[in-house]
Amino acid sequence: MKxxxxxxxxxxxxxxxxxxxxxxxxxxxxMGALHEGHLCLVRAAVHENDVAVAxxxxxxxxxxxxxxxxxxxxxxxxxxxxxxxxKVEVVYAPTAADMxxxxxxxxxxxxxxxxxxxxxxxxxxxxGVATVVSxxxxxxxxxxxxxxxxxxxxxxxxxxxxxxxxxxxEIVTLPTVREPDGLAMSSRNKYLNAxxxxxxxxxxxxxxxxxxxxxxxxxxxxxxxxxxxDMMQDVTIDYVELVDSATMAxxxxxxxxxxxAAAIVLPTARLIDNVRFDPGAxxx
Length: 284
Ligand code: AMP
Prior knowledge:
The protein is of the alpha/beta class. It has helices at 7-18, 36-47, 76-86, 96-99, 117-121, 125-140, 152-164, 194-215, 221-230, and strands at 2-4, 25-30, 51-56, 90-92, 144-148, 170-174, 236-244, 258-265, 270-277. It has two domains: 2-174, 3-Layer(aba) Sandwich (Rossmann fold), CATH 3.40.50.620; 187-275, Pantoate-beta-alanine ligase, C-terminal domain (Pantoate--beta-alanine Ligase, Chain: A,domain 2). It has nine helices and nine strands. Helix 2 links the parallel strand 2 and strand 3 (51-56).
């Protein structure tokens, strides 16, 4: 397994791969502190492509000054061991100084889809994500890139960006990987103390309950949203919304694929989760 740390060296490696017309490069971008959710993306990148790259980069431009950039876990050696076990060819781990050199001034803004949900409470966030993912794509030059449904709005932002900027990269979204009790895996779960870990469970429980109602025919967003809110009375709710899965705009009925998304703020961490529902794909 090669560890590459500069955009130039990464690009040189990818360009050499791309000289072979049959080789497909799969890519799983991460911020490290790898868990099974990340490793599912990495595994798919390895198995569905000829060569696979995983990146580890805690991206400063997606954190606001009051957020957890400094505390964000960085178990780099453990992460490398996990990626080696998955047989990725390359780990791309640039430094912040290499990614954002003196005088850095260029940002990618994806309008509309970035505005609501997490974009409303973290207005800097998707500009940072779209910018860093563009830069990672420019260095890694993947044919396919893998993202997790856990960050549904991030997936929608990246898909919009790839289409709008003619990037020609296939975006693959994989299901949310959960702890046995339902909590969505997240590097930030490490921040939770015992009391908050217990309280955090209401998020997935409430979303699963609403998902059952959707499957049973409930189509009224107000009903679905209030069911979720009612089950999360012990925590601070950031948002609960029913949105179109592609545009992330609120819907007033369930006619196509929708995402029921929620964020809660606990004293030790802010957590997000969502469920997707497609009435067209429903089995009878
Ligand atoms: P992060 O390191 O949090 O930036 O996440 C890197 C990638 O892993 C993103 O595409 C996330 O959506 C994905 N991811 C994070 N947690 C999970 C999870 N529990 N299940 C599936 N994918 C996940």
